[in-house]
Design goal:
mainly alpha, 1% strand, 779 residues, 36 helices, 4 domains, two-stranded antiparallel ribbon
Length: 779
Amino acid sequence: MMPLIKYEFIKMRGRKSFIVILILLLLSQFFLFSVSLNQKIPLSAYQKFHQTLLSLPNEKRYEFTKKEYEKYQSFMILEQLTQLRQNEQKNASIIEELLQENPNVENYQQEYISNHQPQYTSSLEQDAQFLEMMFDEMTQLKTYFQYIKDIQQQAQQLSGISIFQSHQNQNEIERSAKDFQKLTHVEVTYDIQYPLEMVFSFDFTSLFLVIIVLSLSYYLIMEERENGLMNLLKLSQNGYMKVIIAKFIVMFLITSIICFLVYAGKLGYMAWNCGLGDLSRSIQSMAHYRQCPLQMNVKQWIGLMIGFKILVLSLLGIIMMNLCLVLKNRILSWISILVFFVVEVFSYLMIHPLSSLYLLKYINMISFLQTDIYLKTYRYISVFGLPTTLYHLHIFIIIAGLIFGSISCICIYVCKRDFSLRNAHFVFKHCLHLSSLCSFEFYKMIKIQKVGFLIILSLFLQYYQYHHVSVYMDSESSIYQSYMQYLQGPLTDDKIKWIEQQQDYFDSLHQQIEKIENNINLTSQKKQSLKENISMKLIGENVFNDVKEQYEWIQKHPQAEFVYERPYEEYFLSSSWSLAPSLMLMIFLSLSLYQVINIEYENHVNEVSQITINGNHRILELKIIGCVIIIGIGMSIFYGTPLIFLHSVYGFSSLGASVISIPTFRSLPSVLTLGHLFLIDGLIKFIICMSLTSFLLMISVKARHTMTTLFISLCLFVIPLFLIYNQIDCFKDISFYPMLNCIQYCIENPILLIVQIMISIIVMILSLKKVFQQYFHVL
């Protein structure tokens, strides 16, 4: 067995693509972790506060935090009062209100004058915010034993209520009270929890570990199977049971090592920058874990979290190994695991905890991966009539899944049936009737490379997404839309007359209000009633003022027209209508085009095709034409759908109007029309898509390996947009995002956009040149 395990380790060490994936993901994870830490409150603040707490006895730490919190809150109010008193006569009421709400603030006046410099951060406001967070945590720790006492009292009260008299409810109440009764003698230590909480609550870590484990399981199974080595191994003496068990062991060991290194690195980073606190304190000394009924210290909790994460990732690895053994090829394996995660995410997000289907929410891979959350929440649930706690259920399901998943994998592996299906045979079998080279290449893309399936899936997702989208418009927005729909187009005499009539109408209403105010014969109640009736008619006045501003602008710039600007601003300037479609488009292109060239290298078809008459540049030209068509289809799906939706809601009118008709576009040249903006937007997006596709094809001819190409394309094309989508904005200017949101950058930063367009065109030309040079080089 040991030689087999050693051999599997040597094979994985020789997988350069896997090593590259591993290193890039680990580096990306640590980078994103450091970026995601609370930038408003520096880590040094936690370190200073922790060092101060260590110098105090445990019983004095709460009082110290309370005094610091009150002092800096008073400093903030005193600073506000100092600014208000610069114009005391005008701000007298506000000053009086502040003093009434904070009667003790004057007690800190002398201390504020002598020294009110920030102690933990760079500003007084940040200090107050930081100490408020610390005081909230310390207060939860202070009231912990009262919290336990309240649970016991509530259990006694509930047990006496008739609706809770059933045997199951009584057991749940008694079990909850009993679980927390054991914690009455737990020692609570006042210390910081932020560093440890951030280490285990950072979701990107779980995401990257999932990708690593799925890639690891894929390489352990699918590479041998597609190369035909699996059937050869089965002919050897130890080629059945021992081989698959060795693969299990290697997968588990590599997963454990990676998981341990990731969390050890994060713990070391946080310990160096802000400290971890006393690791021997009870887990209940972390305020957010007051519901945890387990008796353990923080050090044991860290071990439990890492160990549980390893088990969950190992279960996921076994699921992936089963899929690789059962399904026909790599594409179906990855699509199946993606569908599995989509179903799991949907179940986790959409099922309510009190729903009859609540077990699907908790017996769920997403729930398993969030190890920090299920320990924070105590829930006693019934599984098919058997009462248990949530964390016991998780442990049982994961261990059972590991056992049955392993047995299933072994049974499939040792089965005499050959589940594999060679890609070359698959192509040959289904394509004999295609005589045209062009039709053959397009058939490979649509059918064999599953682009047709991706197109259908994309159409379904877009339809489902926008079918359930609703746009809210308040009364003023509706009035403004009706005004602009009536006025849209060039300025005419009729429109001038209508605007003057509206202005006279609103002026007359103001005159009526003024007359009511000056009428001494009316009571105050009657005046108020009449003014309210007239005010209802003035609702559209603010909107009319916006219309009037456009009218005055058009008078000064005759080439401008009345245009309802909201649909244009939403489509061109709002990230909610551009970022998500761009992200989906990059995923679509990466999954559609990553094996356009690699499928021939891996099946050695290129060695046959290059000796044929049309097997030279003609094949490559057809592949590039196919890529262009797929880009066009993808752009039509992901950019056309929101365009159609916005048109159905608002309507894109006056496409021939000058861009300066819309206030936000007035910095653009007036010779451009709104229709030109759509053409420019589509052209620049096509350039960046074509540039990225060319680069992807160059990666293909360099790597000549499908999974390496897919991973690199996802890292370069998808992950930057995914991070921007999750509001990590540092990637905006250094990624290709400006070209996908080009109209906004035409207004805000045109130089950056021009530079990126030039770089994209250069990259496209050089990449295509490299592709034509190396496409037929034999390895």
